[in-house]
Design brief:
Elements lengths: L3 E5 L3 H10 L5 E6 L2 H9 L3 E4 L6 H6 L2 E4 L9 H13 L5 E7 L10 E2 L10 H14 L6 E6 L1 E3 L6 H6 L4 E3 L7 E3 H13 L6 E4 L7 H12 L6 E3 L7 H6 L5 E2 L2 H5 L10 H11 L1
Parallel strand pairs: 1-2, 1-4, 2-3, 4-5, 5-7, 6-13, 7-11, 8-10, 9-12
Protein name: Nucleoside-diphosphate-sugar epimerase
Organism: Thalassovita taeanensis
Keywords: NAD
Length: 283
């Protein structure tokens, strides 16, 4: 039987995985809300399904693997709300299920280290909704669930260079603020390694080795471009969206030993100092 991945909320990280699975002969079904994105998926060899309007009953019946990228909302996990009963029914015959969560479930540790055993204590509503969604997926009996807690994602089309080039970048300074990051290609290789070596119930932090202050990343991008250092702005004085400001509510360093020790992953980009030059070269 051909391996079939049904990707709910087929977005940036999921598309990175497809680039690894497609040459191996996988059938990929991806959901989207947009007709334009559906056409783009089809051009990439992905079978698009408009969702939540479309019917995924047949796709679920054929799937051997599920990837859930769709974010929860105030009503809970949207995939389980619509298809929870059917997923429960087919759970024992699925080979692998991956749920893309966030390191935001750990909350604020004032720059301290967290790992997969750290108690979950989100400090934002978005983080709390992720904790609740993780628990809802865990509650399905017999589901070969793997949870991936992703740090800040960057990669092609998602780097700091455009803002540095157009002069809108700022180095926002907040004492003891550090973020972990992950390149989309490293997310993809972690997911592929887990599919190859499934371990139902496992949780993996997906991040690089170099949790760093955000102003350092902006400064490095400017240096790579040969442009002046963007101005420094104190966090208290910075004009930011509520979403952007919420990221600064948490500071932590995330350990990634498990993806290396259990899945045998060697990061392609262990630091933004590796990832940013590669992005610039490819642009």
């Amino acid at each position: 039987m051909a391996k079939t991945l049904l990707s709910f909320g087929h977005g940036y990280s999921a598309q990175g995985l497809v680039r690894l699975l497609d040459p191996r002969g996988w059938r990929i079904i991806g959901t989207t809300r947009s007709a334009d994105k559906a056409a783009a998926f089809a051009a990439q060899g992905v079978e698009p399904v408009l969702w939540p309007d479309g019917d995924l009953t047949e796709a679920l019946a054929q799937a051997t693997h599920l990837l859930i990228s769709a974010a929860p909302d105030a009503q809970g996990d949207p995939v389980l709300a619509r298809y929870g009963a059917q997923i429960t029914t087919i759970a024992p015959r699925l080979d692998w299920v991956g749920y893309l969560s966030t390191t935001g479930v750990y909350g604020d540790h004032q720059g301290g280290w967290v790992d997969e055993a750290t108690p979950l204590a989100p400090s934002t509503r978005r983080g709390q909704m992720r904790v609740e969604a993780e628990a809802a997926w865990r509650a399905i009996p017999g589901l070969p669930l793997h949870i991936f807690r992703l740090a800040g994602i960057y990669g092609p089309g998602r780097g700091p260079f455009e803002k540095v080039r157009n002069g809108t970048a700022r180095r926002i300074i907040k004492a003891n603020q550090v973020f972990s990051r992950t390149h989309v290609e490293d997310i993809a290789q972690v997911l592929a390694a887990s599919i190859a070596r499934p371990n139902a119930g496992a949780v993996y932090n997906v991040c690089d080795d170099d949790a760093a202050p955000p102003e350092d990343v902006i400064g490095h991008a400017a240096a790579l471009l040969g442009l002046p250092l963007p101005p420094a702005v104190a966090f208290e004085d910075a004009e930011m969206t509520p979403m952007a400001r919420s990221f600064y509510a948490e500071s932590k360093r995330v350990r990634n030993d498990r993806i290396k020790n259990e899945l045998g992953v060697t990061l392609k980009y262990p630091s933004y100092r590796d990832g940013l030059p590669a992005l610039l070269k490819a642009s």
